[in-house]
Every structure is written in C-alpha cells, then in structure tokens.
Amino acid sequence: MHRREFLAAPAGALLAAAPAFPIADTHIHLFDTGRPQGVPWPPKDSPIHKPALPERYRAIAAPLGVSAAIKVECSPWFEDNQWALDAAAMDPIIVGVVGNLEPDHPEFARQLDRFSKNPLFLGIRYGYLWGRNLRQALGRPGFVTGLKALAAAGLVLDTANPSTALLADILRLTDLVPVQRVVIDHLPRLALPEAPAGRAECEANLRELAKRPRVWVKVSGVPRRIGDRVPTDLASYRSTLDTIWETFGPDRLLYGSDWPNSDLWADYATGFRIVREYFAEKGRAAEEKYFAGNSLAAYRWKKR
To answer: Pick from 20, 113, 140, 153: CA 20 to 30 A from residue 239's CA?
Structure first.
C-alpha cells in the first residue's frame, strides 16, 4: 500500500491490510499465572492477571503482520530468566529475551556467562523498578564493571521507567560505558516537568541522548488515559510523537506494544493502528526502519 492510499484508507481497511514489510515488536511480556509459585507481576487483582504465553501473543499479533517479538523481563526472580528463555523457545515468533540481572551482583559474571550462551538472551533491563535506583547504582564501581562486561558480551541494556531522572542517568551511563547499547523504554509515557527550568533540562537531555548513536528509543505504550478517557485517535498523541520523531529521527526509533500491559489502556490492534498511521506519514523507508530495521541494530536479534 502506497503512502497516499494508506492515508486515504479507513481504519478498518488499514487493519485488514498487513504491511508488506517485516514487523518486530520489541516489547512484550510473557508470564504464566498458573504456575504453582505464581508470578511477582501482574498482581492478582489486575485485569491482565492471566497466562500471557507465546501462543496467545501470536494469535493477536500475527494477523497484523508481526513476525518477531522480544520478551522483556517482568520479574526480579533470578530463575525467571531461564523460565523466560524456555517460554521463548516454545514459538519462533519470540526472537529474543531481555532478562533481569544485577550488574554488581557477586555472581553477575557467572550469571552473564550462563545466559549469554543462549542466542535468545539479548540483554538485561535496569532502571527504576523492583526497588532499584539507577543513579545510585552508577555510583558503585562494581556496577560499572558489570556494565562493561555486558557491553563486551555484545548485549543490550533496556531502561525503565521513563522519567527526567532516568534521562540524566542514561547520559552518565553512556559517558561511563560509551560502547554500551541502550534502549529507552516507553518514551511516550515521559511526563515533562511543568516548571520551565525542569522542562528545559529534560529537553536538553533528550537532545544530547539523540547525539549518542548507541541509544535507541521505543515508541511504545502510546495509548494512555487523558482526562477521563483513553483516546484511540492519532491526533490525541501526535504532539508527543512529533517531539520524539523530531528529536531522534528515523534511525533510532523502535516499535513496541507493551503487551499485555497495554491491554489496560487499549487492545493490541488499536495501539498498533495508531503508530502505523503515524509512521506511514513518514514514508515507506521510515516505516520499515521503525517496525523492524532499527531493532536489528539495537538488539542484534536473529530470525528463527
């Protein structure tokens, strides 16, 4: 479908026509709430507290043209790294796993050696979750040593969750370990400070991060509550997407759904449609980079 035809097509036709290029979803979560030990997330009272396994994901995403997905950690339990790899092995649509290891853990070198032998293990996630604090961690020499080992192994670092503090931390991290590939998760959910000075600092940090070629951004988690509703039209999110596009350009943006967490705001097809409409306006080359090409550079995943 050409750009002009795409823009003229109604939403129903848009969803009915899968793109002619590959699509890689760089941010999904897998878990099995039926395990005897349960799961640390999501909580039992959550609407998404039900098994989220590759077969269910494929049924939702494959009809839209998604042929690859990366599972991002959603558990601080060490052995859930192995559970995630085993779950990913169940279906070739899962091309990688971003695990959960602590770079300054006494056993980190051994753990890294163990999991990096599996070609599906693409890296780890660290930031402001599970009670962790990236800023404090960067002040510990052992943490930086661990990051250097991660980079040497050719693995990526995902970050969570987007905030003004996190952006400043990523700048410091990439100063300390310049060769480390970093992916910033869910940037559309960043809340800019209301105070002019804070907003200016945040925007300056984004511009500086855009200059660093080993930093990528997930345009993920786009649907959100605005006032008393969750809009499903592109117009409601355009200004946020424009800021990210204008800052980082076509080569540094990645598609991610945040499934099934995204179901708390909108179904998979709705979130996909919003970003597909937006990137179709940027032309075929930009679409292909956003939906798959850039993820190959960021994660170095391999088709199964």
So the answer is: 20
